[in-house]
Amino acid sequence: VQLTPKDFSDLLEFSKSLAKSAGEVIRSGSKAILQDGAVDEKKNSVDLVTEWDVKVENLVKGEISKTYPDFKFIGEESYSSGDRPTLSDDPTFCVDPIDGTTNFVHGFPFACISIGFIYKRQPTIGVIYNPFLDQLYYALKGHGAFLEVPGYSNPLRLPISKARPLESLSQALLGVEWGSDRRASVIQKKANSFVRLAGDSKEVLGGKMVHSLRSMGSAALNYSTVAQGGLDSYWEIGCWPWDVCAGIVIALEAGCYVTGSKQYFLAHRDEEPLDLVDWDELLWGRKYIVIRAIADTATEKGRDTQRRLVEDFYNTVE
Ligand code: 2AM
Ligand code: CA
Ligand code: CA
Ligand code: CA
Hints:
- There is one protein chain.
- This protein has helices at residues 5-36, 51-67, 76-80, 101-106, 184-198, 219-228, 241-253, 279-284, 300-316; strands spanning 40-41, 48-49, 72-75, 92-99, 112-119, 122-130, 135-140, 145-148, 156-157, 173-175, 212-214, 233-237, 257-259, 266-267, 287-291.
- The protein is α+β, with helices and mostly antiparallel strands.
- The chain folds into two domains: 5-157, Fructose-1,6-Bisphosphatase, subunit A, domain 1 (Fructose-1,6-Bisphosphatase, Chain A, domain 1), CATH 3.30.540; 169-316, D-Maltodextrin-Binding Protein, domain 2 (3-Layer(aba) Sandwich), CATH 3.40.190.
- The strands form three sheets. A seven-stranded mixed β-sheet has the order 3-4-5-6-7-8-9, with helices on both faces.
- Bound molecules: adenosine-2'-monophosphate and calcium ion (CA) (3 copies).
């Protein structure tokens, strides 16, 4: 399928409006759930899924198949129920109906719908909508990343904050998550990494420590917050394509670096041509670092610093 620039801007508008209507459902679901508390435990007591995850996914999937009947669909709940298309050259939507289900269940206002669109294997459109804060993040490859937020009549271009150069991880406010795999051995390893990042261990970061760690409870919102400039980096193990697809586009368009699980494998919109990036690896590798680019990505020295930051990361975390 050959798509034109007009098709892409239509797809972006379609995805934004779909995210808004899905957001309405998420908000009414939250109201209902906080009143009568209907929650299923999926694999264990922390892997929650609600009837709303499924409802929202069905709504989104239905609207997509009405408007774009030939496009493929990857979604968390469809995947869970055995509908598992592999990545191909076909135009493909990649959707998490509710990212941050635990927050959604608790009424902690950081949950969102994440709609990614993949074209020729490459994440191309990203829309992330937090209906509790009415924040709509979106990006189309090659056209920048934006945030629509109450109080501003025009979309804000990301990053919002004038980035101070990040020269060491020790200057970072860093997003991390506990995840849903709570086997003691897994959590111990994560906690060790948190200690190495946040503590003054002599052997890492030259005895320095990151400014602090934050857990927002939503992978997609971690990505969009790094893109915005509110976090300097987000490190995660275990995410799925629907957690990161939209976020990857938004972060890249905001000038961030994104890495997959292969050491030092970096994607940045102004460096290696993005069609050389191993997108299967980036989407399915399950290990991610997204990091705000330092100010001078235009220079080789700046890019070296950037690589060193990522290297520091790999040397610090387990
Ligand atoms: P969910 O709310 O859609 O389940 C919380 O740590 C964040 O990680 C959420 O975005 C959550 O998505 C996502 N997540 C879910 N399962 C995960 C896993 N096994 N490993 C890492 N992150 C996961
Ligand atoms: Ca889930
Ligand atoms: Ca998710
Ligand atoms: Ca989800």
